[in-house]
Amino acid sequence: MSIVQEFKEFAVKGNMLDMAVGIIIGGAFGKIVNSLVADVIMPPIGMVLGQVDFKDLAITLKEATVDAAGVEIAAVKLNYGMFAQNVVDFLIIAFSVFMVVKVVNRLRRSVEAEEAAKAAE
Q: Is residue 72 a part of any domain in this protein?
């Protein structure tokens, strides 16, 4: 069996082991995408915007305080910079998944066309 045929069967039919491998690879891919966004894409954008680190962009709704017992109460912030970074993460992951689905659909159609051609003979 050729590697192309074997890959087509893997991509089209699949099974639980294949799904498990996909989930593991997907988790690792998520880490790669997070690093791509946080370490490669956002720093140049921050530099263009004036040395801004997107993780630090926030609106403070209430400053941190210390209560009567000496316990510090954390500040209340809207972390819109982290939100923007997560939106970019999502867009990259969504586009990547879209491309994978597109390739799988193309492979599935070619397998169905081959089967229809064999059936017509």
A: no
DSSP the chain: --HHHHHHHHHHT--HHHHHHHHHHHHHHHHHHHHIIIIIIHHHHHHHTTS--GGG--EEEE--EE-TTSPEEPPEEE-HHHHHHHHHHHHHHHHHHHHHHHHHHHHHHHHHHHHHHHHH-
Q: Each residue of 62-71: pLDDT tens digit?
A: 998 988 888 8
Domain of 43, in residue numbers: 3-52+78-120
What pTM was computed for the model? 0.57
Residue 12 covered by a domain: yes
Question: Nearest 5 degrees, angle CA 51-CA 37-CA 47?
Answer: 15
- Asked if residue 59 belongs to a domain, the reply is no
